């Protein structure tokens, strides 16, 4: 895709006033609601505007088309995941590998599924709006934060922390995708977090100096 085409999908206008912010939030929430109720095949800007209680013209002030709106929603979701991981990694600098595993896993699951319905809806449209490209930004930020914190582990040193971070993040993302496809609930989310913590801790400890032949 050309740079010109990519730019076309960015929001037209950044909300700076309270009223504008409220309109954008209403539009985004309405998009999720219409997706869940009617499915992506019936998702239109007209239906979104009606659900949000705004005119189609107001919607177009911020998003030139449906695609740009969905991309903005997905980016906001993934930016939140990256931010939660960055904050968590900073908070556990110098901690044990076990503590890092617990904190990072919890932050990922909490951020990824803060709104299960929204996560399901966004996953359904991800492939249609270049979700992989958008996810690269989150992956890069999270990998950088995890790489840095692994180098501060209290009792051991992780070899190749960048590779370990990227591998763990990919593994957690893969599990979350599987859960979305199977139908995640609050109950299964708690189980997933517990099992992921075991996996992350075991991998971190195996990757530490002296644990791999």
Automatic annotation (TrEMBL):
PROSITE patterns given in the database record: HTH_TETR_2
Domain of life of the organism encoding this protein: Bacteria
DNA-binding region: 44-63
Residue ranges occupied by any HTH tetR-type domain in the UniProt entry: 21-81
MF-aspect GO terms: DNA-binding transcription factor activity; transcription cis-regulatory region binding
Keywords noted in UniProt: DNA-binding, Transcription, Transcription regulation
Family annotation (InterPro entries): Homeodomain-like_sf, HTH-type_TetR-like_transc_reg, HTH_TetR, TetR_C_15
Protein name: TetR family transcriptional regulator
